[in-house]
């Protein structure tokens, strides 16, 4: 039997991104593959958020191509994209006090007919996502009254209920304490074990090293390095990416990087 690499869920080729004709980053090639996590790593102002928003269709590309399951992204209707790509924003403050269960059920909107409420399949998907993320006991709590880590887990559960093939997370551990960072990252990493493609942005190279299979390093509007995270993340590449000295700490079969 010949084992072949899975086809990308989402791929970008020669992509140029920006706003209203102002180029932010370009010459970008990426592939997001089922069962693998890719970390988008880089300094502030390097173009990470603009690239992420373009890849999921919130911004039009200035040039190049994005393909979703082999077809141009723009050829997919918005509802079709939403059934394939789930987006998890940073866990900031919530304006409305929806319950955690209601928040997770919102992930099923792409599967519902217009003006139709959630059906039994939608409720079952939401309950399964709550159970999988270990937050079923919070289902009736207002999402405004749970911790930042629990809120982020609720947003991941909402994405999981969406039944996508790709989950995109924007700085999933921003503003979380140390314990909740570990909890969210562990759950995020488990998504690849279920066969999903995962893309996340981060400022922390150690998160990318430990929780991503692949990394793309973006700075000054270009990819300065990309490839498997274990090979690509090193002192030299991080020094180039951030423009600073980098210290490597190793022991017990693990390594980590600190600013020098």
What this model shows, in words?
With 260 residues, this protein is α/β, with parallel strands linked by helices. The chain has a domain at 10-93 and 164-259: Rossmann fold, CATH 3.40.50.300. Helix content is 32%, strand content 28%. The strands form three sheets. A six-stranded mixed sheet has the order 6-7-8-3-9-10, sandwiched between helices. A hairpin with a 2-residue loop joins strand 9 and strand 10. Helix 4 (120-132) packs across helix 5 and helix 5 packs parallel to helix 6 (178-193). The longest helix has 16 residues, at 178-193. Belongs to the ABC transporter superfamily. Part of the ABC transporter complex HmuTUV involved in hemin import. Responsible for energy coupling to the transport system. InterPro entries: AAA+_ATPase, ABC_transporter-like_ATP-bd, ABC_transporter-like_CS, P-loop_NTPase. One of its GO terms (molecular function) is ATP hydrolysis activity.
List keywords for this structure.
globular; 260 residues; 28% strand; 32% helix; 4-stranded antiparallel β-sheet; single chain; ATP binding; ABC_transporter-like_ATP-bd; Rossmann fold; ABC transporter; ABC_transporter-like_CS; alpha/beta; 6-stranded mixed β-sheet; 9 helices; translocase
Provide a quick synopsis of the model:
This protein has nine helices and twelve strands.
CATH class of the domain at 10-93 and 164-259: Alpha Beta
Which strand order do you get reading across the main beta sheet? 6-7-8-3-9-10
CATH architecture of the domain at 10-93 and 164-259: 3-Layer(aba) Sandwich
Structural class: alpha/beta
